[in-house]
Amino acid sequence: MSYKCPVCIKVSKSAMDLARHMMGRGDKVHRDWIVSKGFKYSELLTLQIKSFGGEGYKALAEVLEKETKTKD
Amino acid sequence: MSKYSVIGQRVHRVDGPEKVTGSAKYTFDMVLPNMLYGKVLRSPHPHAKILKIDTRKVEKLIGVKAVVTGKDTPGHKQGIWRRFPELCDEEILCRKKVRYIGDAVAAVAAIDEDTAEEALDLIDVEYEPLPAVFDPLEAIKEEAPQIHEGVDLNINITRHIEWGDVDEAFKKCDHIREDQFKCCSQAHVCMETHDAVASFDYGGKLTMWTSTQSSYYIQRLLADMLDLREGDIRVIKPPTGGGFGSKFELDSAQFCAAVLSMKLCKPVKIVLSREEEFTATKRRTPMYYFVKLGAKKDGTMLAKEVRVITEGGAYTAMGATALYLTGFFSSFPYKYPNYRYDGYRAYTNTAPTSAMRGFGAPQSTFVGESQIDMLADDLGIDPIEIRRKNGMTPNYEVPGQAYIQSCGLHQCLDAIEKHVKERGKLPPNRGIGVSAYGFMSGGIFNWFDTPYAFSAAIVRINIDGKVDLFTGACDIGQGSDTTLSMICAEELGVRLEDVRIHAADTGICPADLGAWGSRETLMNGNAVKMAAADAKRQILEFAAAKLGPNIVYDLDIRDRWIHLVDRPERGVSYYDIVKEAIRGRDGEVIMGRGHYTPHRKGMISPAYSFGVQAAEVEVDPETGRYKLINVTTAHESGTVINPVGIEGQLEGAIMMAGGYGFCEDQPMDEGKILNPSIADYKLIRSLDMPETEILEIDTYEPEGPFGAKEAGEGLTNPTAGAIGNAVYKAAGVRINDLPITPEKVFRALREKEKKGKKSK
Amino acid sequence: MKKELKFTVNGQPYEIYIKPKTLLSEALRDHLGLTGTKRGCNSSSCGACTVVLNGMAVKSCSILALQANGGEVMTVEGLARGTELHPLQKAFLDHGSFQCGFCTSGMLMSSKALLDENPKPTKEQIKEGIDGNICRCTGYNSIIRALTGVVKGEYKEEK
């Protein structure tokens, strides 16, 4: 199972990993996609900075699990 | 007999006589014929649009010769990350917008300082104040004001470092800690403020004398900002009164002096006041740290997860490097099998934060060393033992990041363990805290022109045997002039007094990136050694031809004596050979050339130095006040070239790093620094300075000249952590928020008492 | 309106005309060209401008030049005798008690005033004597070692 980034060529091995990539890139195209799914980017970022274990990624990862999973 | 004849000796600094007699001429002292004096007008608002600047009244003031604003410049933006244009975001003389209290908007040149000062009051600036934001966590919110166009959520830069799988590793840990820390800002407080004398001539050439750490960067940045050819700019560094990271970016004194001089074709001098120095120059990056550390119950650390958000201030400056290095050094000096760092830098409407001695490592070391002590306490393990268990060793690779060749960390731990035992049973309310560090000997990176750092040197031998050494290295007090002269003398086989150094004049010296990242000894030292070896080879070739020894014999020079290595009594004077060699070459002097680049030598730095420090404090439990009693440091920096120099750097580092832990801070209110004077900015003075002891650990770094590596910056890392750990040992309270002031200790002690009473 | 200032600096008499608001540090540096005395702050707190006036260490940035009228000033330029360095200067060189050098003039003058008043200070008294001088480079201990060396008689003044 792999997860393809909706806006760039990156392919990750898990939804959490893909969420980390998208939040980490932080550029306009990645942020715009995240915002288009109804998230407030700064809230996710603040949660990500202040917490551990990927708390800030969980909600985003759930969406990515549904929308970006591809069979190898 | 010592292996070396010059290096390792206790010598007088080569610039000593001029400094102890007051005859050294700093930029601060310079006066040129027809020179004018400049002053800079600065924004009183943290964030505002500039609607109008009216200079008509100023132009009428007798004695004022010119007034300039952003409109008088080509309108470029500077940034040291020249290869990344989006990070070049500082106009210096602002055209449309100001972004912090202190941002420059205009400058005047007049016949004296008083007139220039008076002139500033006559410049009418109409501002439209904008909402401002000061805290990085607030600055990244959607509703925060946008500080730079096109930069959403004020997120300036992000950096990520990762190896292994921390999430999986945490599952295997027996004990996990999650802690938060706040690292404050710090001012460099160079004794000589930022200053410059700029002289633009009718031939279109600009000469600048300035207090700087890198005449090379200043030359290049001036060229960028003024649309001049680099070759038409000459930057000269006179004796310089300190740098500590504040003087290798183009500052308002340099830029405004140049712009004014270009308008008038006369020399213009600008010296920043101490207040401007505090408010309008760059400072140490404040950081919020969120750290999770996991270990097995025997103390073996398995995973570390670090999140940092830094207060960037109004411009990028060197902030990107501080952000990266703080994450990189958060993994030092231990072997973490799994590690993850996510760093974010947010723009804020405060004075820009940039480089200061340690460059992100004092912050990461305070955090890391406090947390490892907390972990040790939780697990009931001795603080030295837990460091020993996890400490880096020689030839260790930080996965995907760095290769450590020499590393004397364990010998340093042994030495400090011995020292702590020898201190014996301490009097009441005293405690000793330990802190370990590792630091780089210059980065392999460069930010413009070439992707890799470099140094170069030229050695010229004159007919009387006197050696001229040309280097771009900048002595800002750390002693590079002396250290490099010693390396040259040693390699060439002459005495220190035979070498005359010419440094940091872009008109005559080879280019060098300057004094930052603790790179001068290793990088310039290697270049100087190579240049001296080249010159020596030419001398020895002539000597061999003249002496005609059997081909199996090697010649060498030591203490001005050219001799057969195996029969040192058979030789000839260096002076005689040099004289004949030059006469024989139609008077052409002997020139040696050398260079060094750390390209392909490790991923971050060609070498790392390590150390362990023990700080002993005594806390007054009634008031929370504490004294620094003793700071003992075991450190290794390869071969010691200049012992007096290293001791000075170590003790000076303790004063600066101790200050970071003990008392230095820049509290702000709505972006205004509240203590912009030496009267109010608390520094360690002679009465506060603890006893210091240095335990030199012998190591040899293959990459360094004669085995040497860095010393001056690494030693600034451990003290804040050592103080924090010592306060905990002495008083049982842990302060995670720098500086560790008496008020914080007092409050923590009272909290602890209250909790103690409640549980009864 | 300029006023006359008559004073002795480093043993030499001077007569100059200055604006009344001229500070002693400005008179020394700008009028007499004695740039050894530095200025590091605007709040009389750093000590870089220390000179000896009538036997006392003073911060020359906090005194009007006219207050030195009729007085005797010694600056760092007055320490050496010809080319023979003062014991304090020799000690500073030996111990590496300076790095960037900007605080050094003030530090030497505070030290001179201290030892003139008290030739055998204790270590604590030495620390107090230089407490008004900030040094950002050395961490003070090498300065204290230099002064201790002078106090112990390791540097004899040439007669």
Secondary-structure topology with pairs:
The complex is a heterotrimer of chains A (72), B (760) and C (159).
Chain A: E1 2-4, E2 11-12, H1 15-25, H2 28-36, H3 41-50, H4 55-67, E3 69-70
Antiparallel strand pairs in A: 1-2, 1-3
Chain B: H1 16-20, E1 36-42, E2 48-54, H2 56-60, E3 64-69, E4 97-98, E5 104-110, H3 113-121, E6 124-129, H4 136-139, E7 155-163, H5 166-171, E8 175-183, E9 195-200, E10 206-210, H6 215-226, E11 233-236, H7 252-264, E12 268-271, H8 274-279, E13 283-284, E14 287-295, E15 301-313, H9 319-329, E16 338-347, E17 353-354, H10 361-379, H11 383-390, E18 396-398, E19 402-404, H12 409-423, E20 430-440, E21 455-461, E22 467-471, H13 480-492, E23 499-503, H14 520-547, E24 555-558, E25 561-564, E26 571-573, H15 574-584, E27 590-596, E28 608-619, E29 626-636, H16 643-662, E30 668-669, E31 672-673, E32 691-696, H17 719-731, H18 742-758
Parallel strand pairs in B: 1-12, 10-11, 13-17, 15-16, 22-23, 29-32
Antiparallel strand pairs in B: 1-5, 2-4, 2-6, 3-5, 7-16, 8-14, 9-10, 9-12, 14-15, 18-19, 20-28, 21-22, 21-27, 24-25, 25-26, 28-29, 30-31
Helix pairs in contact in B: 6-7, 9-10, 10-17, 13-14, 16-17
Chain C: E1 3-9, E2 12-18, H1 24-31, E3 50-53, E4 56-59, E5 72-74, H2 87-95, H3 104-117, H4 123-129, H5 141-151
Parallel strand pairs in C: 1-5
Antiparallel strand pairs in C: 1-2, 3-4, 3-5
Helix pairs in contact in C: 2-5
